[in-house]
Amino acid sequence: MAIAAHCRETIMFSIFSKKDERKERPEGVESGSLLDRLKQSISKTRAQITTKVEDLISGEKKIDPELLTKLENVLLAADLGPRTTHQILEAVRQKLERHALGSATDLKAELKNQLLHVLRTLPSSDGTPSAAEEPRPRVIFVVGVNGTGKTTTIGKLAHRLRQSGKNVVLAAGDTFRAAAIEQLGVWAARTGSEIVKTKSGGDPAAVVYDALSSARARNADVVIVDTAGRLHTKSNLMAELDKMKRTAAKIIPGAPHEVLLVMDATTGQNGLSQAREFTATAGVTGIALTKLDGTAKGGIVVAITRELGVPVQYVGTGESMEDLVPFDAEIFVSSLFD
Ligand SMILES: Nc1nc2c(ncn2[C@@H]2O[C@H](COP(=O)(O)OP(=O)(O)O)[C@@H](O)[C@H]2O)c(=O)[nH]1
Ligand SMILES: [Mg+2]
Q1: N or C: fewer beta carbons within 10 Å in the chain?
Q2: In what order do the strands lie in the sheet with 286-290?
Q3: Ligand 1 pocket: which of 143, 146, 170, 290 to mutate (most atoms <8 Å of CB)?
């Protein structure tokens, strides 16, 4: 079999031995700093929405319909998307007619309600299933366009899992560029994860085969599979992803258990149309939204939830290992306005 031949070429090394060297974070410290990191990362978006809404109504105690056009521009600029913006404006308009909105505080409260309403339509989850239902190993495919932050997000995710004592195998399924394999290798070493890889140009499905076989043999907890940055228009790349998924299912029934789509928040509505293609063809189960720290368009979180019907599970808040935060709708919205 072709796959078996590839198996022999595949280089594997384990650094499970580093397991005990990692630093344990004292309990309670993480969640506080997680909140701070989420708040910090959406500070530009907060400036875009809240500060501008306050500016709009500063001095005026009354909100009039002319203000709605300005409000519309503010919301669109934050990348909430046309549908959500329209819905919010409609709700505000109706409340104005009923004289139910008197002040800036009322308006902010209404915005908050509307955003939460959209975000709550999907379960917000960090993707961690309860112990009882957890498949072993749990297989996570990470997909998305080049440069969105797939490999970095895998590193951060591996770090989180290692922090909670999980054994992690990383599969270097982006065999297109040698640099991508090396980059994943650096993250494996940094996090104390095993890496399974092949030479550049090798068959990504063979890497999946080896990684899952190795993970099963070692009774590892999680396998995270990196994939080549594919454009949704490249059907051969989509076919390759399909083959990787089929290979995974042959070794671990039900795998991949998750397909995490990585999206770059700075690409805004443009990224959204790419993501739509992915969700249609790749069976995406969750979104990791990266580079939230670099944009005032954090409203894209709401647009993603609404347009794709897939939950945002994580947000990337910077380039370091710690900069991945499980998304929480309540915290997100209250950080935007409070
Ligand atoms: N500021 C910031 N940069 C990020 C984040 N996630 C990834 N990056 C950077 O984005 C660039 C591309 O990341 P990479 O993981 O190589 O993308 P890939 O091609 O999808 O695998 C790198 O320079 C990363 O450091 C994030 O959440 N915030
Ligand atoms: Mg990469």
Answers
A1: N
A2: 11-13, 194-197, 168-173, 222-227, 138-143, 258-264, 286-290, 312-316, 324-326
A3: 290
Ordered structural domains, the chain, with CATH: 2-19+134-337 (3.40.50.300), 39-119 (1.20.120.140)
Nearest one of 323, 324, 272, 275 to 297, comparing CA atoms:
272
Give residue 198 CA to ligand 2 midpoint distance, Å.
Answer: 15
Q: Quote the ligand 1 centre to 197 CA distance (angstroms).
A: 21
Segment 81-127, tens digit of pLDDT: 898 899 989 998 888 888 887 777 888 888 899 999 888 876 554 45
Q: Per-residue pLDDT tens for 229-270? A: 866 566 788 889 999 999 999 999 999 999 999 999 999 888
Question: Tens digit of pLDDT for each residue in 158-209?
Answer: 999 999 999 999 999 999 888 999 999 999 999 999 999 999 999 999 999 9
Question: In whole angstroms, what is the distance from residue 121 CA to residue 311 CA?
Answer: 9
Substitution candidate for ligand 1 out of 152, 301, 317, 319 with most atoms within 8 A of CB: 152
Contact 170, 194 (CB under 8 A): yes
